[in-house]
Amino acid sequence: MNATPETVERVRADYTQVRKLGNWTDARTFAVRARRGHVVLDLRSPRIPAGDIDITVDLDHAMIKLLLPADAVIDDEDLRWLGRGRIKDYQARTDVEPSRVVRINGEIRHGEIRVNREGVAMLSAMFTKEYLRDAVAAHREGRYPTIDDPARAS
């Protein structure tokens, strides 16, 4: 049996802000390393295969914002905290069957993870330079922008 290793998408933000929005990847495994930085990961894309998503984090005084589908569930059992920090997931729903599980492991030193879903995720993506560029290009090409809603057919 030939097992192919799954692609690991690596994201690094040292003293900067990194945004990965829209249909930017087809990986289900991520490694995020940030030191005094800010990372936005859009995981709503239909290009991401079905199944669970694994995110390994190494944060030091940093923040990750995850843009997720409405019915995704966060599993942070293997996440280690040093100092202050928390996961802010105000829109988590327990009344629906989860479409996928987002497993977060690794270590966070004085940092946090923010989770945005549905309309808040769309607004979060829309208030960026990347959305503005996508909207201008979409207008020129006669299509709809896809940064705010990656599932929308352009």
Brief summary:
The chain is mainly beta and 154 residues long.
Rg estimate, integer Å: 16 Å
Taking the alpha carbons of the first and last residues, their distance comes to 39 Å
How would you characterize the largest beta sheet?
A: 9 strands, parallel
The H-and-E topology, N to C, reads as EEEEEEEEEHH
Shape descriptor reads globular
Helical content class: 10-25%
Mean of all residue-level pLDDT scores? 91
* Strand composition percent: 35-45%
Tell me how many strands there are: 9
Name the structural class: mainly beta
Helices, by number, come to: 2
Low confidence ranges: none
**Oligomer state of the chains in this structure:** single chain
Notes on the protein architecture:
The chain has 154 residues and is mainly β. It is 14% helix and 44% strand. The protein has two helices and nine strands, in the order βββββββββαα. Strands 1, 2, 3, 4, 5, 6, 7, 8 and 9 form a nine-stranded parallel sheet that branches. The longest helix has 13 residues, at 129-141.
